[in-house]
């Protein structure tokens, strides 16, 4: 199958494209049959030298069955040689499955948090009741405060003789 496509030329970061007729199996910048135009993306849009086409040669190749690529079809549509419609992919902007799952999970957590906050606002926890003040004599209050409850210290079990570290024998000089 013959294609009308772009072949990249130019230096690094300075692209320049040739519009060529090539077999669809040949490499992008490889062998081609005929050069039928040029495209310089560094020139401003609307400038006459940005896209140069040999219209009579392109119409001849189109009549022989050559198919333009998407970008070349845009150039040809601007000249009235081919029909090009903007692609429509309604699913392109939609998030993937995992992202949708995370979004629904996040929404559920937010909804639960709001429900808990609304419930807490509707049913506030009961305020602690103030303790009734008892008129007591100061002398009677002091002895109660002075009484301390003894804290028992943990009792360690006696260490068996076998578990005790062995004493080093005294060194005798001889």
Could you characterize what this model shows?
The protein is of the alpha+beta class and about 170 residues long. The termini are far apart. β1 (about 1-10) and β2 form a beta hairpin. A five-stranded mixed beta sheet has the order 4-3-2-1-5. It has a domain at about 1-80: S16 Ribosomal Protein, Chain: A, CATH 3.30.1320. It has helices at about 55-65, 70-80, 95-120, 140-145; strands at about 1-10, 15-25, 35-40, 50-55, 65-70. It is about 30% helix and about 20% strand.
Describe, in short, the structure shown.
The protein is α+β, with helices and mostly antiparallel strands and 174 residues long. 31% of the residues lie in helices and 18% in strands.
């Amino acid at each position: 199958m013959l294609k009308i496509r772009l072949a990249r030329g130019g230096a690094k970061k300075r692209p320049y494209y040739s519009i060529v007729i090539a077999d669809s199996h040949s490499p992008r910048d490889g062998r081609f049959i005929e050069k039928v135009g040029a495209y310089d993306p560094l020139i401003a849009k609307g400038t006459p030298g940005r896209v140069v086409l040999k219209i009579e040669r392109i119409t001849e190749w189109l009549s022989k069955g050559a198919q333009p690529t998407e970008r070349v079809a845009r150039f040809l549509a601007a000249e009235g040689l081919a029909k090009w419609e903007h692609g429509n992919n309604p699913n392109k902007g939609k998030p993937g499955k995992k992202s949708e799952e995370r979004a629904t999970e996040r929404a559920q957590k937010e909804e639960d948090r709001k429900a808990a906050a609304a419930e807490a606002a509707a049913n506030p926890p009961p305020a602690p009741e103030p303790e009734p003040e008892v008129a007591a004599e100061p002398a009677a209050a002091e002895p109660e405060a002075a009484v301390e409850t003894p804290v028992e210290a943990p009792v360690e079990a006696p260490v068996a003789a076998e578990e005790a570290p062995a004493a080093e024998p005294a060194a005798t000089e001889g």
